[in-house]
Structures are given as C-alpha cells and as structure tokens.
C-alpha cells in the first residue's frame, strides 16, 4: 500500500465525523482535562498558515492527554461579532449575519482539512441568541450587584438597599464611583429616581459619565489606538474628548483580586508582569490642601509624601471640577483657551508626549506643613481619571514636574543633601538620606525628616499625615473601569429599556433580547447609534415583549437601549459555555461546571495580555462570587504561541520622470542589478514566485497595469528581493494552509508547523523545509510497507535490543518534550528513531504499535490508518500512551576522546563496564595511536572517566 495521503486523510476525516470520535461527555470514571484555544474572529480573508499554529500545538496536547487516559474537552467556536463585518455591511448593504455565516463556513472547511480533535457539538458563536442570552444575563447580574470591600466580593444590590434603609452609608465600605454619605432618613426621603441614581454609584454594571474619544464624523466612540494625532485613524476625522453616559463595568473593584490571582496560575512571567503593570497598584497618601483666602479644600494623591517640603506648585487636571472654581477672572481667557486645546488631545497623547503645556489658574494653595502659598496650575500631564486628578509638584524629584518648573520658571528645592538637581537625577529613591531644608519652618513643632532614608521618610510622613488629620493612606490602581457601550450595530444588544430616564432590566425570563434587523448600518441623522433606525425596538412592559418603536408612550411602552456591547463581552465567559453548550436554563449547569471546573491549558496570542485576559478573569471572578463558576481563576496554564511571519517578495520598478509614466510600459529590474537604477520596491504576491524567481507570465497577468511590463533579467531570470514581515494580505505574503494540505497533506502541514521552531517563538514561514517533513512521513510509512511492492512488511518477530532501545529512547523524549511543549525537538527525535529503525530493518508489530501511538498526536491521519493496518482495535485515539522501560535505555557502550599531549586525535567506543586498564591497553594497541607513539616515550596515561583519555608523551 502506498502512502496516499489524500485518500487517507479524507477517509479518516469522514470516519471521525461519522463515528463522533471527538465527541466528549462528562465521565466520572475519568479525570478531566480541558484544552482551549482563543477562539477566532472569522474574517473574510480566511485562515493563513499562521492561524493554525496554536490550534495544532493544543491539538497535539489534547490528543496526548486522551492517550494518557484523560477525558479531554477540546472545543472550538467563533468570536463572531465585530467591526469588519459591520464595515463591510455599511459598504455593501449586506447583513453582517450573512457575511459572518459565510466566513464561518469557510473557516470550518479550512479547519476540517487539518484534522483537529475538536468536539464540534459544543461549538459556540457569540452572535447566536442562544449564546448571547448568557452574556445579557451576566450583565443583568452585574447590574444587580455591588462590590463589598469588607468581604472582597460581589453581593446582591438588594442587600445594599436594606442597609441604606437601616443605616444609610454609615460604616459602608463598597466600591463606588464617588464617595457618598447619607443617613437612613435621607435615603427614605429620596424619590424613586434619586434612589436609582444613588444605587448607580455602586452597581458593578453601571451607567457612568466618562471621558471618551468621540468622533462626530464616524458617529462613534473610538478606542485609544484608533486615534492618531487627534484625528481618527480611519478617515482622518477630528476626534474630541467628550463626557458621555456609557455603560461601564466596575473592573477596578476587582483590581486587588486580579493581582493576587496571578500568583496562583501557571502563566509566563512576562504576561503576568504586563498584567501587574496594567493593574498598576500604587500605595500612597491622599493629602488635603487648603486654597489660600478661601474656605475651599482639595485632595491630592502622592506616593512621595516625604517630599512635602519641596512642593513649589500644585497642578490640577484640566477636567477637574476645581478648575472652574479656582480660575480667577484675570486668568479666565487664558484658561479657557487652554481647555479648548486639551479637549482635542487623547489620554494617550497626553501620557506619551513630552511637550510641556499648562496655564496658571490665578489661585494659590497653602502647604499644610510650612504654611507657604504655592501657585495652582492646570496642566494636561495630570490625568483626571487617576488618583484625585490633582497633585503637589516637586520639581527636584519628579521629572515631569521638573520640566514644567523649568518651562514656567518656578522654583526647584532640592531635598537630598548635595543632590545635583537636573533631568538625570530623579532615580535617587532608595536609601538616600534626606535633608529637608525648610524643616525649621514647619508649622508642626519638631517634625523633621532630616537624616532619614527615603523609605523611612515616606513612612514617617504618612504616619504623621494620618495622625494629624491631614489626609489618609490610600492604595490606588491604574486599572480603570471598562467602558462597555459601543455605538455599533453588530454586537450584543443590552437587555435594557429606559423609564423616567433610568435604565430597567428586561426580566430574566424574557432573555435573550434579540438584535433587530435594520436597513442601513450607519448612525442616524441625529447622531444616534444604528439601532436608532430599528422599526421594532421598544419594550412593552405589560406584554413583556419587543414592539414597534412608534408605539413608545413612556407609560407602558419604552425605548430600548441603542448601544450594543463591545467585542470583549462575548469572549469573557465562552469557556464556561463550552462545558455545557446546550443548556437552556443556565450559562453552565452545576454538574458540568463541577466536572470541567476550569481550563487546564489555554493557548493563544500575547496580543490579548491586557484585554481579553483581564476582562475574562474579571468576569469569571464575578461569576465565582455568584456561585456560577467553581474556580476563581479560569485559565490554569497559559501558553502563548509565537507569530508566523511572512516571507515577502519584492520587484523593483524603475522610476521614470513624470511625463514618461503614462506613455510607456513599466520596467522592472532584477534584484542583483537594481542598484544601477533608480527604483521603487513593490510587494509581489509570493504565490507567483518560486525560490525567489518571478513567474513573468503570472506577474503580467496579476495586475492589468503590468500586462505589458518589461523586465531587465539576470542570467535569464528575474530574481525578487525578500524580507520577513508580518503575514498579511496587504504584503501579499499570505500562505493559505489549503494549498499546503493539497500538495503535501494535513499531517505534513501539522508536523511542519511544529518543526519550524519552539511554539512560543516567532518565526518566518519558509516552505523550504516542508519536503523534509513529507519525506520523513514516507520513511515512517516504509517501516510498515515495502515501498516497491506496496505490500506489508510487518512481522511478528521479537524486536532486537537495539530497536527496543531506539523505541524507548523515543518514548521518553517525546513524552518529556510534549509536557514542555517542545514539539520541534520531539519531531527531531522521531526522525532519528525512524532512521535507526529503518537501518535496523525492524518491522516488528508490537514495536510499530507503540510507534504508531506516539505519532498519533502529531500526524493523526497516518497514525489512524497504520493503526488499523496493524489490526488495532477502535481508534488510535483510544489506545494507551506507551511508557518507557529504563532497562532498555541503558547505554552498553561509551565513547571516549583519545588525546596525545592534550590534543584530541580520535574517538573510540568501549563497553560501559571496561576497566581503566582495559581502556589503556586497547588505546595503546590501536593502530591509530601508532603514528603518535612512534619514537616517543609514554610518560603518563590519564583517564577521565566517561570522557577523555590523554596520553602524555615525550
Ligand atoms: C509628589 C511627588 C514627588 C510625586 C516625587 C512623585 C515623585 P504612581 O506611582 O503612578 O501612582 N500623580 C498623582 N496623581 C496624578 C495624576 N492624576 N496624573 C499625573 N500624575 C499624578 O504615581 C503617583 C505620583 O504621580 C504621585 O506622587 C504624583 O506625583 C503623580 F518626588 O507627588 B507625586
């Protein structure tokens, strides 16, 4: 039988589907193992060879675990909501559901060709109402919860209401948008709407006024990375900072738990560090400053309370409510002009720009320690959303304050004895002895920091501030609440309607609230989100159903929310849904959750380090608090696959003067000759280049403007230039896995993707090695079949000692390497073993059975076929992973290097148990030694056990 991979692969793919080989059900008799891939967004471009890298890596692990006897869950689905489908809909008028469906079908066809062990019965799609039912449900749960800081968990909002009724806010420690204080009587006196507004301050899903990047031209809020130099990246429309009422999730309440959880999971240090920085815990002090000649006070946040004697000015964030109050009439015009400038700047610009800007408010603050008056400035480098949005500025010890002081000619007071205050001297933090020159003038007798280290000085000041009622110790986190509204169509609708301006949740039993159809996908003329166009988008409270928008009467029929949820909504709990994908009464049933618990291995890209991996951890912690998810951390181990980069090709177009361009045909010069001309490199489709040689006819046919192209060749060929770049459609370097599968088979593709290098490393796609992997599979096949006659060569003889050693060495290596995700080295070991077994002419059935099982995770189709040919029972997937026997591994020979006067001359093998005397005799008798010994005297023979034998001669 020939290695006919096309027949073999299609046969097994069909059988696996028919026999539901990869369908998995809970089985108490077996231990569970949950393998998960970050599910794909089904883009219009389909899969390229970079996409399956992680899927293959996790599939190998999933198959390996199954062979070890685990009950393995390995599901797949689609992150199906998103912007590209919506943009396409705006351009073409096609419903995004239609393009999404087509793209999913295409993805599925491509995935099926690669032979994954996915349980497709558990597929989820985020745009499917049966799925987003549970996204909406979780949102409602968040709306109906608050975060209790005492118990550090989410609690039902009803408990908070009861508490307010009994005691108001007295003794309450809850996560909140702003600090509120009221008594039980004040609560009772509030109107229903006021009560709702108050509760909004505590809800985990809440409507909040937040600053957003608003782009009027596109009619939507943009993310920071979609804004460049104050205009939208797409279209170049102006973007302004605008306060908008948006749905937010109180992720900040979970900051400490998100931080603590990192210590309990097996992720790379680099991703954990990225998350720690993103969460940004900072311990500092909040201090009260009085405004001079006024009763007003304001609070600043500082991590360096010890530098209070070096404060020479104060700074307010431009958005601070104090700005208006503290601006004096004389400064008003200048301040207004400055505020208009800041409005155009995104937070990202403000943080990354080193440009110094700001304006004096006209007011002064009083330093609580010295009584000095210090000017209050307004400047964009202080951000509204962090700390209190106000700072005390210490130019001698903070680089931004320093730059500001220099620019506005403000005093700089050094606090470290003999410190040279300049732009380079800001890192003197640890262990430095302080000298507070103004200590003598302090309003507090005897308070001095002189002689202390920075650490001691911070602690002393903090303590002092606390005990004298000047402020309090405060932990801040950089992590912000997540903005959860998008002015888009193709996303989950919020299960929300508005009554008296306050949001109401659709009753849980009425979920899901389905996305309505609309005719065009743009914002409305009045700037409402696309759902403002929906004809049926109102809630009939009495009949508990969606009805015509025109029937809204605000008595029993109300408007539904027009925003939709963002991309991360649907991807935040999908791993739980896979556990119980068809449950109609819960996101996940208790039984399924108890069995599968959490993801044992999660594979995906590092680009999700601060987005998805923070949001889903937050979401899961919330569900854990609600008793829905039984594990606090959803992903136990995380492996980040590297990127497969493209190898791009270039042609070099000879530049011509403007008047020549229209008239004559384009000329392209081959790479080796290009320096003789003035040229422009142009990306060319790698599919019409073979080993860097351009297919001239295909090139001419590629683009109409190249139909009559002319070429300057070298050695009769056009050689293209090349570079390693991101694999992308725009670089024309995309390789479609379908082509590789067609030419070499899926098993070769799988092996090759893993053979390219360590899973975590980024590496260029270079097809040159594919033949090698394909030849290896043929060699492997030839251990079972005669490559000339095609007949089986398998026999029932006992394998020889050397063959057993080859096999057991391989079992050990492959097992250990799979455990470390070092698949490339496992495959190398396979290549060596197959060569050895070939040379040994080993065709023993028993040995080949084990070899087939070892191959099954990597090349499942060929393994399944050979398993059947060997007479194996059922699918090779259900065989038992072989274990190695140490007895077979023992080396019976060792190799020593023979040296003369320290120079290595040759190598020789000896039995492992050879005595030193036997080695000595054998070396001295060896004919290769004779020429070195001739006419010389042996002074000494030194034997380093298992390594070297050195003969000293004279
Ligand atoms: C005085 C001081 C002296 C400061 C000194 C630093 C060094 P982290 O560690 O990131 O929490 N700050 C406070 N709120 C700010 C805001 N809204 N926008 C910009 N800067 C702000 O940093 C806290 C420090 O950053 C605070 O401590 C404050 O400056 C500044 F030698 O106060 B510091």
Structural commentary:
By secondary structure, the protein is α+β, with helices and mostly antiparallel strands. The chain has six domains: 7-122 and 579-603 and 625-640, Rossmann fold (3-Layer(aba) Sandwich); 281-477, Valyl/Leucyl/Isoleucyl-tRNA synthetase, editing domain (Isoleucyl-tRNA Synthetase, domain 2, Alpha-Beta Complex), CATH 3.90.740.10; 498-562, no CATH class; 646-735, no CATH class; 753-883, Isoleucyl-tRNA Synthetase, Domain 1, CATH 1.10.730; 891-953, Ubiquitin-like (UB roll) (Roll), CATH 3.10.20. Helix content is 33%, strand content 20%. The protein is built from 31 helices and 36 strands. Strands 10, 11, 12, 13, 14, 15 and 16 form a seven-stranded mixed sheet that branches. Helix 22 (737-744) crosses helix 23 (746-755), helix 23 (746-755) packs across helix 24 (770-781) and helix 27 packs antiparallel against helix 28 (860-869). The longest helix has 19 residues, at 801-819. The two termini are 64 Å apart. The mean pLDDT is 92. The structure holds ligand ANZ. The site of ligand ANZ has 20 residues, from strand 10, strand 11 and strand 15. GO terms for molecular function: aminoacyl-tRNA deacylase activity; ATP binding; leucine-tRNA ligase activity. Residues 804-916 form the Methionyl/Valyl/Leucyl/Isoleucyl-tRNA synthetase anticodon-binding domain. ATP binds at residue 729. This is Leucine--tRNA ligase.
């Amino acid at each position: 039988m020939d290695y006919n991979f096309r027949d073999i692969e299609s046969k097994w793919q069909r059988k696996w589907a028919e026999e539901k080989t990869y369908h998995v059900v809970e089985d108490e008799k077996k231990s569970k193992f949950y393998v998960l891939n970050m599910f794909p967004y089904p883009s219009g471009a389909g899969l390229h060879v970079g996409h399956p890298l992680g899927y293959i890596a996790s599939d190998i692990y999933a198959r390996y675990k199954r062979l070890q006897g685990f009950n393995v869950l390995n599901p797949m689905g689609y992150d199906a909501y998103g912007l590209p489908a919506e943009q396409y809909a705006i351009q073409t008028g096609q419903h995004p559901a239609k393009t999404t469906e087509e793209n999913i079908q295409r993805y599925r066809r491509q995935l099926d060709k690669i032979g994954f062990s996915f349980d497709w019965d558990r597929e989820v799609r985020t745009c499917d109402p049966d799925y987003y039912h549970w996204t909406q449900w979780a949102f409602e749960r968040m709306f109906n919860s608050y975060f209790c800081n005492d118990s550090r968990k989410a609690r039902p909002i009803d408990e908070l209401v009861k508490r307010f009724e009994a005691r108001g806010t007295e003794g309450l420690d809850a996560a909140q948008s702003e600090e509120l204080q009221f008594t039980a009587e004040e609560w009772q006196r509030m109107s229903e709407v006021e009560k709702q507004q108050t509760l909004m301050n505590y809800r985990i899903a809440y409507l909040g006024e937040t600053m957003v990047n608003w782009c009027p031209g596109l009619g939507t809020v943009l993310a920071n990375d979609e804004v460049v130099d104050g205009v939208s990246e797409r279209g170049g429309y102006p973007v302004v900072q605008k306060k908008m009422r948006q749905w937010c999730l109180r992720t900040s309440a979970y900051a400490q738990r998100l931080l603590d959880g990192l210590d309990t999971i097996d992720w790379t240090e680099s991703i954990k560090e990225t998350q720690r920085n993103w969460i940004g815990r900072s311990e500092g002090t909040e201090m009260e400053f009085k405004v001079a000649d006024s009763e007003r006070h304001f609070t600043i946040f500082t991590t360096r309370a010890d530098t209070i004697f070096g404060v020479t000015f104060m700074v307010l964030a431009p958005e601070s409510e104090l700005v208006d109050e503290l601006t004096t009439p004389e400064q008003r015009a200048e301040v207004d002009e400055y505020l208009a400038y800041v409005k155009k700047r995104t937070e990202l610009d403000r943080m990354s720009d080193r440009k110094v800007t700001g304006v004096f408010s006209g007011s002064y603050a009083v330093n609580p320690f010295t009584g000095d008056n210090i000017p209050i400035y307004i400047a964009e480098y202080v951000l509204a959303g962090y700390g209190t949005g106000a700072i005390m500025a210490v130019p001698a010890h903070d680089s931004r304050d320093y730059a500001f002081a220099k620019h506005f000619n403000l005093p700089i007071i050094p606090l470290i004895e003999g410190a040279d205050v300049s732009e380079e001297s800001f890192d003197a933090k640890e262990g430095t002895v302080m000298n507070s020159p103004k200590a003598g003038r302090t309003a507090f007798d005897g308070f001095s920091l002189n002689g202390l280290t920075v650490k001691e000085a911070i602690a002393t000041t903090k303590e002092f501030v606390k005990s004298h009622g000047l402020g309090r110790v405060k932990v801040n986190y950089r992590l912000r609440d997540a903005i959860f509204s998008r002015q888009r169509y193709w996303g989950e609708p919020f299960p929300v309607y508005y009554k008296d301006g306050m949001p109401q949740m659709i009753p849980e039993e009425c979920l899901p609230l389905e996305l309505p159809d609309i005719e065009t996908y743009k914002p409305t003329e009045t700037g409402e989100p696309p759902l403002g166009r929906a004809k049926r988008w109102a809630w009939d409270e009495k009949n508990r159903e969606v009805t015509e928008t025109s029937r809204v009467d605000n008595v029993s029929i109300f408007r539904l929310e027009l925003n939709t949820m963002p991309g991360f909504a649907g991807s935040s709990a999908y791993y739980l849904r896979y556990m119980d994908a068809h449950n109609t009464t819960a996101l996940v049933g208790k039984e399924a959750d108890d069995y599968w618990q959490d993801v044992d291995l999660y594979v995906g890209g590092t680009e999700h380090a601060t987005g998805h991996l923070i949001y889903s951890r937050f979401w899961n912690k919330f569900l854990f608090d609600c008793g829905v998810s039984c594990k606090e951390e959803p992903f136990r181990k995380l492996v980040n696959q590297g990127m497969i980069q493209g190898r791009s090709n270039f042609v070099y177009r000879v530049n011509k003067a403007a008047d020549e361009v229209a008239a004559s045909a384009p000329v392209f010069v081959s790479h080796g000759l290009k320096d003789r001309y003035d040229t422009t490199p142009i990306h060319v489709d790698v599919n019409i280049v073979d080993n860097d040689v351009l297919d001239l006819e295909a090139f001419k046919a590629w683009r109409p403007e190249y139909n009559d192209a002319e070429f300057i060749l070298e050695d009769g060929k056009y050689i293209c230039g090349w570079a390693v770049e991101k694999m992308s459609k725009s670089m024309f370097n995309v390789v479609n896995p379908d082509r590789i599968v067609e030419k070499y088979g899926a098993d070769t593709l799988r092996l090759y993707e893993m053979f390219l290098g360590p899973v975590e490393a980024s590496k260029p796609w270079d097809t040159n090695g594919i033949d090698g992997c394909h030849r290896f599979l043929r060699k492997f096949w030839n251990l079972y079949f005669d490559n000339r006659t095609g007949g089986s060569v398998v026999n029932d003889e006992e394998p020889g000692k050397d063959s057993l050693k080859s096999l057991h060495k391989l079992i050990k290596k492959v097992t250990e390497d799979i455990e470390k995700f070092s698949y490339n080295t496992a495959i190398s070991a396979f290549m060596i073993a197959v060569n050895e077994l070939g040379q040994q002419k080993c065709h023993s059935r028993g040995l080949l059975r084990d070899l087939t099982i070892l191959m099954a995770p990597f090349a499942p189709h060929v393994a399944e076929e050979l398993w059947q040919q060997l007479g194996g029972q059922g699918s090779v997937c259900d065989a038992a992973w072989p274990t190695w026997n140490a007895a077979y591994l023992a080396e019976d020979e060792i190799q020593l290097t023979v040296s003369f006067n320290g120079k290595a001359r040759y190598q020789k093998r000896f039995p492992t148990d050879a005595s030193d005397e036997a080695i000595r005799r054998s070396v001295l008798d060896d004919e290769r030694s004779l020429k070195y010994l001739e006419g010389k005297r042996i002074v000494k023979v030194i034997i380093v056990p298992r390594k070297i034998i050195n003969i000293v001669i004279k």
